[in-house]
Structures are given as C-alpha cells and as structure tokens.
Amino acid sequence: MPSDLRIRYDVDVRRAAAELFEEGYGYHAAATVLALPPSVAKQWCYKFGAVGLDGLLQMGGRQVRYTYEQKLAAAKAVVEDGEKVPDAMASFGIASRSALLKWCKAYREGGAEALRPKPKGRPRRSSTAKEEPTREQELEARVRKLEAENAYLKKLAALRAEKSLRTGRRQRP
Where are the annotated coiled coils located (predicted)? Predict the structure, then answer.
C-alpha cells in the first residue's frame, strides 16, 4: 500500500503498466494482466502517451498548472485542426485527458475568452459602498429609527392595556 493515501496504486504497478504499454499492449489488455479496472488503465495509457514514464510514476502528487496560451493552443488543435485528444495530449504535454476535454468544451461554447483565468475568491467591495451618506440620507435613517421606536412603544402600551383588562388590575406606570 502506498504511503501517500491519495495514491491508490503503488509505483510498481504503474511501472508494470508502462512496460506493458511500451510492449504494445492496449489499456484493456494491460488491465487484464494487472487486474486493474479498465478505466484506470485507460487513464494511465493516455498519461503515459502524453508525458511518458516519469509523468506516470509521479502521478498523484501536485497538480500541474497550465497557462492560458497552452490551454488555447491545445483546444484549438483538437477543435479546429481535428487533432485527436491523445495526440494533442502528447504534443502539448498535457497529463490530464479530462482537463483537455473541459478546455475543448469551453472553447466551443465561449471561444478563446472562455479559457482565460477567472479571479478566485470573494469579490472586493466597491468604493461606492464606502462613501459617506448625505445629510438627507442621515435624516431619513434617523426618521425611520424614531418611527420604529414609536411603533414599539405604542405596541408595548397596547399589550399592557390588554393585560390589565384580562387581570382586572391596573398596571403601574
């Protein structure tokens, strides 16, 4: 069992799969020989073809960040030039098939601008929110506060009157 719990299969299993891929085995045959799920062997086959043995063995560590230009070039090659996904992965050094497919979908739907990086996190407050209220706005806020206070006091007086009617005693002021 691997020491890093994020990695499901050991380096030796991945190395054996790479040797089978080099010998000409397909992912289905390699999955049968190594007793792996075919979906895992298929991912490894694509990754091996794209980034080679080193990329396959270092799988499961940190994620690779791709620039806007790399994403755009790879998506254009697949969508416009008709290059196959495994070939584009190999030529552009992209380790993840699913990432390339996402980029292609975004490129088809929104063009090159859809691949631009988007700002992360919560947006900053605008400068208009920091502006001080005008004298009129301050007065309106004060009037609303006083009206709410007045309504509260009226409701309190009504509740006290109702309670004194029910009990038959007069409440102290």
Answer: none
pLDDT digits (tens, 9 = 90+) for 40-95: 888 888 777 777 776 666 666 567 788 899 999 999 999 998 898 888 888 888 87
Q: Is 160 found in the same domain as 142? A: yes
Q: Whole-prediction pTM value?
A: 0.51
| Count of structural domains, the chain | 3
CB within 8 A of 19, min separation 6: which ones? none
110, with CB counted inside 10 A (0-12, 13-18, 19+), is exposed
DSSP secondary structure letters along 26-87: -HHHHHHHHT--HHHHHHHHHHHHHHHHHHHHTTTSSPPP--HHHHHHHHHHHHTS---HHH
Rounded distance, CA 48 to CA 93, Å?
A: 10
Please state the φ and ψ torsions of residue 134, each to the nearest 5 degrees.
-75, 170
Q: Flag whether 2 is in a domain.
A: yes
